Amino acid sequence: MTRPFEGVKILDFTQVLAGPYASYQLALLGADVVKVERREGEDMRRTPLSREWAERGLAPGWQAINGNKRSLTLDLSKPEAIAIVKQLAAQADVVMENFRPGVMDKLGIGYAALSEVNPRLIYCAISGFGQTGPQRLSAGYDGKIQAMSGIMAITGHAETGPTRAGFAVCDVLSGATAAFGVSSALFQRNATGKGQLVDVSMLEATLAFLSGQIADYSVAGHKQQLSGNQAVSRRPTANLFRAGDGYILLAVNTEKQYRALMTALGCEATFEDPRFADWFERQNNEPALRAIIEEKLASRSPREWEAILEAAGAPCASIWKVEETIDHPQISARGAIQEIDTPYGRLRFAGSGFRLEHGGGRLDRMAPALGAHTDEVLRSLGYDADAIAQLHAREVV
């Protein structure tokens, strides 16, 4: 079955995480993504988590977001390389980059230059703060955006202070936003026939995902504070609790769920206790309610309570590690972690995060070795063997 973006050609200059994550989502859905790298390859190929994989130029984190792509190396400081880019752009549907604003313009391959070559071209520029505004030239890094966006002001505990999320959340959601922006522009081009600039700001993408917190302030004047592990519903039973030898996250937000929880714990007496008569009283008496709940939860392990409470209708989860989650029966049943054969054995990677009835996301091949497709791409442009050899000799590619 044809996937949504089969036939779509993407010329991808992105590096590190936000941009490559965006193009990876489109590659999973069938787009032909040609990843343009400098001749020595991008730094992310050699991150120091694993010496073995770094020496191969295939660091795990880099592989995670570069599958299904083809690798072309170019020295963009050389006119011959710029000529190759323009040839590719003339045939492409999308160009993606995440340099600081103006870098691609200085090279002569920014939006203005490439849209002249191809008026139907969709040009996606991802940066920390967008192509305009007083901070347009400031570097954008995930931690910096977490701090500036308000995420860290609501993440952490009053006793220990703000903390960043345990993964590069702003990079990833900016990448998802960029993939959605490119998809939108491709869809709109069907009606208009015109290409356009897709300007993605990491800060603005993050704020879009904080829509509820923004409205809490802009509508009701509520100023967010560090919320620890409490849910945005602010229910005292939607929080992290000690259980046995560990912890369990309760997501009990409705009256029905509350009664299911307390019944499963054998705490039916609390239904007659005026301290817990409704959500307002439960919030006012949260320490007492927590003490009652944790006293009961102490008798079993988190996983045991997870099974008991879920069966009773009280949403919850014990704390799963990544290495456990990828083998969770639910994940296995839906094939959410995709496996592919590689020269290094069978490897597993996350997929697109959603399923389509027809032609959904699929990982066909692992991330490419540096420059693995350079000659192939050049041949598609009409370069013969001698011309390709000359480009290699002059270190253009």
Q: How would you sum up this structure in a few lines?
A:
This protein is α/β, with parallel strands linked by helices. Helix content is 41%, strand content 15%.
Commentary on this structure:
- The chain is 41% helix and 15% strand.
- It is built from 19 helices and 13 strands.
- The chain has helices at 18-28, 51-55, 60-63, 79-91, 103-107, 111-117, 142-149, 151-154, 169-192, 202-209, 211-220, 255-264, 279-284, 286-297, 302-312, 322-325, 329-334, 374-380, 385-393, and strands at 9-12, 32-37, 69-73, 94-97, 122-127, 156-157, 161-162, 196-201, 240-243, 246-250, 316-318, 337-342, 345-350.
- A six-stranded parallel beta sheet has the order 3-2-1-4-5-8, with helices on both faces.
- The model has no long low-confidence stretch (mean pLDDT 96).
Q: How does the overall form come out from the CA principal axes?
A: elongated
| Average pLDDT taken over every residue | 96
Radius of gyration: 25 Å
Number of strand elements: 13
The largest sheet has its strands arranged as 3-2-1-4-5-8
What is the quaternary state of this protein?
single chain
Structural class by SSE content: alpha/beta
Query: Which regions have little confidence, pLDDT < 50, spanning 5+ residues?
Result: none
Helix content: 40-55%
Helix tally equals: 19
Major sheet size, sense and barrel closure: 6 strands, parallel
- Spatial separation of the terminal alpha carbons: 35 Å
Estimated share of beta-strand residues: 5-15%
